[in-house]
Each structure stands twice: as C-alpha cells, then as structure tokens.
C-alpha cells in the first residue's frame, strides 16, 4: 500500500467552487482499480490550502493512473482553481 499526498492551493475566494467541482469529478477515484480510498482535507489556518490523500495498492498503479484520459479530464476540471502547481509525494506506513 502507498499513500499519495497532494498539496493543493486554490485561488483565495474559490474554495467553495473548487470543492463543488472536486466532488463532481471525484468519481474518477471511486472507479479506478487500485484506488482504495481517498479524502480531501481543507486547511483551517489557510482555507485555500488542501491536502488530497489517496491510498493506492502500489505506486506503479498510481503512476499508471496519471497517464489515463480519466486523470487528464479530472485535472482539466480542477486546473482553473489552482493558484500554484500541485505538490505530490508518496508515503508508506511505518507503524
């Protein structure tokens, strides 16, 4: 199991619109083999900052997903809200 954490910053004042669009297009994660679960977290101190946390069966599955038309459609849908480039890392459990 691999955990992807994507740090997403949206334009200030666009938080609600971003969340609405994200939920509209989040079906892509539910329908992707290898995506076990996901959640979107909003910053309390800086509400324009989000953490997208996704549990994948493997890093290879996630990387393959990022090459699909479905991922590209998802990214195109959320791109207008982005204030900066998404920062992404993979993690594994230690405990």
From TrEMBL:
Residues making up the signal peptide according to the UniProt record: none
All residue ranges annotated as the ABM domain in the record: 2-91
InterPro entries the record matches: ABM_dom, Dimeric_a/b-barrel, Heme-degrading_MO
PROSITE patterns reported for this sequence: ABM (PS51725)
Name by which UniProt lists this protein: ABM domain-containing protein
